[in-house]
Amino acid sequence: xxxxxxxxxxxxxxxxxxRIRLRKFAQQPRMTMEGIxxxxxxxxxxxxxxxxxxxxxxxxxxxxxxxxxxxxAFAEELGTFTGAKHVIPCGNGTxxxxxxxxxxxxxxxxxxxxxxxxxxxxxxVVALLGATPVLxxxxxISFTIDAAQVEEAITKRTKAIVPVHLFGQMADMxxxxxxxxxxxxxxxxxxxxxxxxxWSDRSQRAMQSGTIGLMGTTSFxxxxxxxCMGDGGAVITQDDDMAARCRQIxxxxxxxxYHHDVVGINSRLDGLQAAILRVKLQHxxxxxxxxxxxxxxxxxxxxxxxxxxxxxxxxxxxxVFHQYTLRILEGKRDAMRAYLQSKGIPSGIYYPIPxxxxxxxxxxxxxxxxxxxxxxxxAEVLSLPMHTELNEEQQTFICEAIRIFxxxxxx
Length: 411
What we know:
- By secondary structure, the protein is of the alpha/beta class.
- The protein folds into 2 domains: about 1-45 and about 285-410, Aspartate Aminotransferase, domain 1, CATH 3.90.1150; about 45-280, Type I PLP-dependent aspartate aminotransferase-like (Major domain) (Aspartate Aminotransferase, domain 2), CATH 3.40.640.
- It is built from 14 helices and 14 strands.
- The chain has helices spanning about 1-10, 20-25, 40-45, 50-60, 70-80, 95-105, 120-130, 145-155, 175-185, 240-250, 270-300, 335-340, 370-380, 390-410, and strands at about 85-90, 110-115, 130-135, 160, 190, 200, 205-210, 215-220, 235, 255, 260, 310, 325-330, 380-385.
- The strands form 5 sheets. It has a 4-stranded mixed β-sheet, sandwiched between helices. A 3-stranded parallel β-sheet has the order 3-2-4, with helices on both faces. Strands 12-13-14 form a 3-stranded antiparallel β-sheet.
- It is globular and about 70 Å long.
- Mean pLDDT is about 90; it is low at about 1-30.
């Protein structure tokens, strides 16, 4: 298999073949490569297996499976990494959003401005609390919420703005912070996909994602850039009062044992997951560099293909590449995905149905005419394999398959 792969790479290098030769190569059955994954957690964990075993062993020795020293230590270490004064670990990223909104007292009659071009939990939690999700369209460059439309959507009932830092890149936090201060509406950053990204404000001061708004929320779902081996999440904030409220809400609304001052929920990060996250947090800077290096390799191989738009980096945000997301133009996205699948190459569509078009939210009466950019993105986006173990040989194979497809349909 390795000999076949080497011959293939030598045959193709360095992307200067004619269309005839490319089509001839596409017809050859040997164009396959085993082991390409969208996310390779097994490979990642194998490299740190001893560290993980030691960390989990500490929990087994103490028996502190709920709360305990590992959870406390992880919260402190994540606070150091992000620069956040308070970290409130919880059960998952959806709970983190709910806890943050409950801390603000969001409920029936209130409005929360956010985007529907994201995983459904961002919109879902607003509706679950009885509030109204006010959805606005996205910026076509970054796929994140359009700040100008946010300001237009603010009313006297607006209780929060929830930008989603999507695919590893941040929303326009300079513009959103200005809007937040002008209208006295707090920001909750949905940071599930961009932990470790940084935003530079007008003074060029770099700030970690999730720390700019009143609160930030994140998820430690296994496939995230900082992922555990199950579910996990956290709320981060610089505000003492918000931190106290979030801790209370996450623990059944208790101020002290058996004293329930507010209605809360039960959402805790368990000790085993915290121990795992402590290990992986130490490697997160290297994980980010590996993703950024893989993104640069993709860029170099795909930047000049007709009908393919590589990810555009916005000026003020670093990009940690939770996903490497292309735009496939002219209605060819689904055909390209099918072609890649036929070659054993996985891909993902995040997100095929924006929130405003989901059946669960049809009672809110969203007008599809207001979501042209979201709908176009939903029809064009295609995410390629992206993870810390992705290597140049795999990326070459992926990009040559894309090149063959593009040149063939444009012949």
